[in-house]
Amino acid sequence: MRTVFVSGNFNVLHPGHLRLLRFAREAGDRLMVGVCSDRIAGSDAFVPESLRLEGVRANGWVEEAFLLDEPIENVIRRLKPDLVVKGKEHECSFNKEVAVLQEYGGQLIFSSGEVTFSSLDLIQRHLSVADYSSIIYPEEFASRHDFSKSKLLKILSKIASLRVVIVGDLIVDEYITCEALGMSQEDPSIVVTPIDNKMFLGGAGIVAAHASGLGAKAEFFSIAGQDLAGEFAEAKLKEFGVKSRFCIDPARPTTLKQRVRADDKTLLRISHLHQGSISAELQDRIRSGVSDVMSEADVLIFSDFNYGCLPQRLVSFLINDAKSHDVFLAADSQSSSQVGDVARFSGMNLLTPTEREARLSLRNQEDGLVVIAEQLADKAKAETIFLKLGSEGLILHVKNGVGENRTDRVTSLNSHPRDVAGAGDSLLVVGALAQAVGATPWEAGYLGSLAAAIQVSRVGNIPLSAEALLKELAP
């Protein structure tokens, strides 16, 4: 582990200090900061040492901060940091740290940081570390439908026995993290400089990865192009334990969606895609592959983004084939424009549309949510509807429900999401797999909502794990 040491008075943590600390943290793996005591700083200390130390400790780039109340040479000799960082203004001065560093091979470097600064380690940490602190639990819903967390834990333990087949549009998501430079002087454009990019599996691919992460055996059928995005997706699916069966279409690219982000906000989205239906030949190849495994499957999930992988001819055949083998059926059909009809997935055990997708399918912009859910269930001949309402939560409509509980609502379980991408995929997978092992729609809806809350606690589409759900349900 590469240790970096910085020292100073730090009366007020102004932008110059922050750039220096940021530079120092990027230069190594662990940053230690010595804050000069009131005795050492003398008249240069305008703020009491306790407050100055507290301010440095509050900085996210600092792993350890302490009061420095002895000669700097003694501290360096004892700590033996790999690097000592000082401001650029000290480069042409006498630096007494040099002699001590030479004793054991340490190094002194100078930088006051950059206005535009790439901190890749911190960016990666931001993308991969989840914050579950804002997840809440609607105990009233569980009480209303007579289930407990222990019951949900038993349901989750059964999911690993399932064999799941996923068919749908493969998508690769790329997050391009930028530093915002400001407005262009030539025209009213925002100017950024890219400092990092990270790619994630998306679309139906992440649905398959979620199923595998929960312990199920997942097989994924889709279309890919002859390109780097397709190669990336194939490698990631293998890493996530998914058996992928791609039909290569050289005439279309693997769908790639790029998000340009700065200051934890998405500034721009760029989509590289082809929306025409795949050829009859490719449909037949997918149909043949899925039919080969249908007799051993427990669940078939359609993950449709209306990019051409699921023409109606193919969908109808697969639905009939699955029903002949008593396979649980679930579908989601995302419509980013006025294209899409989730009701074309007829006879599903579970449909998970957004309110907008349901209204688009029904051509109904007038009626209330409960009526919309009922009408969609009737039109699509679906047993259960999970109507997604974004930050307002989820409406559950159960066609075979009894009495008042035929329709109910789960509130959003995460009040401060970091990235909403992938929430619906998580809900779809967990809701379907839970029902396939015997959960009631209410239990499945609760588990699916919890999975979505976990998913939006982090940036980027990252596969769910059984451990994450189990941890959130632990007593």
Secondary structure layout plus pairing:
Elements lengths: L2 E6 L6 H13 L2 E7 L1 H4 L7 H9 L6 E5 L3 H8 L3 E4 L10 H8 L2 E4 L9 H9 L10 H6 L4 H10 L4 E6 L1 E14 L6 E14 H10 L3 E8 L3 H12 L3 E6 L6 E8 L2 E8 L7 H15 L4 E6 L7 H13 L3 E6 L16 E2 L3 H8 L6 H12 L3 E5 L5 E5 L8 E4 L12 H14 L4 H15 L10 H8 L2
Helix pairs in contact: 8-17, 9-15, 11-12, 13-14, 15-16
How would you describe what is shown here?
- It is a single chain.
- The protein has 475 residues and is of the alpha/beta class.
- The protein has 2 domains: 113 residues, HUPs (Rossmann fold, 3-Layer(aba) Sandwich); 349 residues, 3-Layer(aba) Sandwich (UDP-N-acetylmuramoyl-L-alanine:D-glutamate ligase).
- Helix content is 37%, strand content 25%.
- It is built from 17 helices and 18 strands.
- A 9-stranded mixed β-sheet has the order 10-9-6-13-14-15-16-17-18, sandwiched between helices. The protein has a 5-stranded parallel β-sheet with strand order 3-2-1-4-5.
- Helix 11 packs parallel to helix 12 and helix 13 packs across helix 14.
- The longest helix has 15 residues.
- About 4% of the residues have low confidence.
Brief sketch in words of this structure:
The chain is of the alpha/beta class and 475 residues long. The protein contains 17 helices and 18 strands. It folds into two domains: 113 residues, 3-Layer(aba) Sandwich (Rossmann fold), CATH 3.40.50; 349 residues, UDP-N-acetylmuramoyl-L-alanine:D-glutamate ligase (3-Layer(aba) Sandwich).
Properties at a glance:
elongated; UDP-N-acetylmuramoyl-L-alanine:D-glutamate ligase; five-stranded parallel beta sheet; single chain; nine-stranded mixed beta sheet; alpha/beta; 25% strand; 475 residues; Rossmann fold
